[in-house]
Design brief:
By secondary structure, the chain is α/β, with parallel strands linked by helices. The chain folds into three domains: 136 residues, Enolase-like, domain 1; 215 residues, Alpha-Beta Barrel (TIM Barrel), CATH 3.20.20; 62 residues, no CATH class. Helix content is 34%, strand content 19%. It is built from 17 helices and 19 strands. Strands 4, 5, 6, 7, 8, 9, 10, 11 and 13 form a nine-stranded mixed beta sheet that branches. A four-stranded antiparallel beta sheet has the order 3-2-1-15. It has a four-stranded antiparallel beta sheet with strand order 18-16-17-19, sandwiched between helices. Strand 7, helix 11 and strand 8 form a beta-alpha-beta unit. Helix 1 runs antiparallel to helix 12 and helix 8 packs parallel to helix 9. The longest helix is centred in the first third of the chain and has 15 residues. It is globular and about 70 Å long. The N and C termini lie far apart (67 Å).
């Protein structure tokens, strides 16, 4: 069939794409398989420490990203597959009901069911690959690349910490860095400090999470930065993705490509109105394959965003092996942690990592590390980090005090804080044991404290 824009949009509207999506949703057959019946599922929680630089910045917003659940699936033939779930991420939690559904059924029958949860689905794919003697990508589709680009990820942080992270990234063979652009840091100054330390070939992708709010703020701001800093490669979600007219206009104001999460606005609208240059694609296996094929039909590049340790990053490599337009560096966030949790560890050269060729995921679980970091399941999300005092210093001399990120996100999104002013910065104020610190921290925990001066 000739690939025209009409065909692309029609396929997108139906949730189908030639040569792959329907097959992906119904699961490819595995010919001549041994007994793939799931006999049991084991689940263990672990708490993996952050590396030092991420640790001092993640505690403001994502301290709970250290918790994972390891799932292991044992088949009737004795083969064991494994996977992981970041417990407090936006999707993918494995439930007791999901475990009950897969036990007694063929792993090949269940592995395309995204509702099973991230770690369990990953373990099913790993087990089927091992049992049939093929790498996971062979279960997904025809191979289109032997190596895939990976990006180094970091949260918003002082420019000096970005410098440290990028120094590690360059030393480990990465050529791309993805991070957060936030209105409580002066992005212009951050770029000044960071880019003068980078080699010319190294690029940066900035994710605004819509915090430029609208084209009034975004147009001139982005065009000024992208003209000043040649290392900037992609802007992600500068303004709300639902603003179709605004995003369409914004593309005319910047030389830098704009990336948006696939599905918002609806893909028919996104393609027809040309609201972005490419996509961010994540989720379960069926969703990733479906969205990746539709993006390819529209000739739109994307990066895969499956978040976890190197276990999840390796799973993502298998999708990159078969999805033609997974051309932008994948974001997996696995660089945050002190341990890869699997062997062999991912090796990056010239920004690329080889697709594993051994059966299943192509890696083995580090059982010693799992036992070293094993913890009991928590009853509730461990947020916020206790006893934090955070100050946003405004260029006017004013200060806003908070105890965790959700407070100042809410203030900002409700229009109570300035939008990316020059000279703003955020700092964490250590507990000096004084009564003044304790009183201010208690007040800020109850409600944000805004001061015209700098009392602490």
């Amino acid at each position: 069939m000739k690939l025209t824009r009409r065909n692309v949009l029609g396929a997108a509207a139906g949730g189908l794409a030639p040569g792959g999506v329907a097959a992906a949703q119904s699961a490819p057959a595995v010919a001549g398989s041994p007994n793939l019946t799931v006999r049991k599922v084991d689940r263990r929680w672990i708490k993996i420490p952050f590396r030092p630089v991420p640790a001092r910045n993640m505690n403001r917003e994502l301290p709970h990203w250290v918790y994972f659940e390891i799932c292991q699936v044992t088949l009737a033939n004795g083969v064991v597959g494994f996977g992981e779930t970041m417990v407090y991420y936006t999707w993918g939690r494995v439930t007791d009901d999901a475990v009950k559904r897969v036990i007694g059924r063929s792993a090949a029958e269940s592995m395309w069911d995204d509702s099973t949860g991230c770690g369990l689905q990953m373990a099913l794919f790993d087990a089927v690959g091992k049992a049939t003697g093929v790498p996971v990508y062979r279960l997904l589709g025809p191979k289109v690349r032997d190596r895939a680009f990976l990006s180094w990820w970091a949260i918003d942080m002082p420019a000096e910490d970005w410098v440290l992270e990028c120094r590690d990234a360059v030393a480990k063979g990465y050529t791309a860095f993805k991070t957060k652009a936030r209105p409580w840091f002066d992005l212009d100054r951050q770029c000044q400090v960071l880019t003068r330390t980078l080699p010319d070939h190294f690029v940066i992708d900035f994710d605004f999470n819509a915090m430029l709010l609208d084209t009034t703020n975004a147009g001139r701001y982005l065009s000024r930065l992208d003209q000043q800093y040649k290392h900037i490669a992609i802007w992600e979600s500068p303004i709300p993705q639902s603003d179709v007219a605004g995003n369409k206009f914004l593309r005319t104001q910047t030389r830098v490509p704009i990336a948006m999460h696939f599905g918002s606005p609806p893909i028919m609208t996104a393609l027809r109105e040309e609201v972005c240059d490419g996509f961010v694609i994540g989720g379960g296996a069926a969703r990733v394959m479906r969205d990746g094929i539709v993006a390819a039909m529209a000739d739109k590049p994307f990066w895969l965003q499956l978040v976890g340790t190197e276990i999840t990053a390796t799973f993502a490599l298998h999708f990159a092996a078969v999805l033609t337009h997974a051309r932008w560096p994948a974001v997996n966030c696995h660089q945050l942690y002190t341990e890869p949790m699997a062997r062999p560890a991912i090796k990056v050269e010239n920004g690329l990592s080889a697709i594993p060729e051994t059966p299943g995921l192509g890696i083995e679980l580090d059982e010693q590390a799992v036992e070293r970091y094993r913890v009991e399941p928590l009853r509730a999300e461990p947020y916020p980090t206790p006893n934090l005092l955070i100050a946003i210093r405004w260029p006017t001399g004013a200060t806003s005090y908070y105890t965790h990120t959700r407070q100042y996100w809410q203030d900002f999104q409700n229009g109570r804080l300035p939008v990316f002013p020059s000279g703003v910065y955020l700092e964490t104020i250590p507990d000096n044991g004084s009564r003044e610190w304790k009183e201010l921290q208690a007040r800020a925990a109850a409600s944000p404290v805004h001061s015209g001066g700098r009392p602490l």
